[in-house]
Amino acid sequence: MKAIVLAAGRGARLRPLTDVTPKPLLRAGGRALVEWQLAALVAGGFTDLIVNHAHLGSQIVEALGDGSRFGARIGYSAEFPALETAGGIARALPMIGSEPFVAVSADIHSGFDYASLAPVIEDIARRPDKRLAHLVLVGNPAWHAEGDMGLEHGLITRAKPWLTYGNIAVFHPRLFAPLDPNASLRLFPWMYGFAEQGLVTGELFHGAWDNVGTEAQLAALDRRLSGKMRP
User: How far apart are alpha carbons 88 and 104 in whole angstroms?
Assistant: First the structure.
């Protein structure tokens, strides 16, 4: 199964750390953030991986190589400047191909089981006219108490109460095929148009989940992971 790991963000709130090190290579628990993500994906059966990059991207390529030491095959999609999530996926579409794929941010850490998405991928591939995307949501953290979107009867909505997008998703490539591969485009609010058509499902993940956006969040994650067994 195929996945794209989104690693092109600048990490402005983590400056000055990210002035010299790309955010995905910042370390927690003795391992780069992106390496935790790669290990979790491979454990879930995703071994055909694409990593997009922009800021200090050559460091990411050098650190991860061809992916063989992770038990995966890694290809790279370079952006300059960074194209945001939807734009970055559109740029990488020739590498992604025609089958549904997982998209995940390089700067999150969670206990989510990626293997659980295999039936979702199969269903989206079988009936893309009914289902084009699937989003994993989490409870609202303190720093994002208002949330992003609603979840009703398995469908993403704009009705409150809102939950937070967990930066884990399954997409059908046809979503991104009409997009300009050289244009910057955020995933939201663009994706809400498809949700309003009933084409975007979702689930609520109750396990451990961290989105590392500040130095304090990185330090807290490091403390929790230090000394723990790697996945």
Answer: 12
Q: Can you give the length of the chain in residues?
A: 231
Looking at residues 26-33, what average pLDDT do you find? 92
3.10.20.740, 3.40.1390.10, 3.30.2130.30, 3.90.550.10: which CATH number matches 2-225?
3.90.550.10
pLDDT digits (tens, 9 = 90+) for 92-142: 999 999 999 999 999 999 999 999 999 999 999 999 999 999 999 999 998
Q: Three-class SS of residue 3?
A: strand
End-to-end CA distance of the chain: 19
Give SS3 for 9: coil
d(CA 198, CA 203): 14
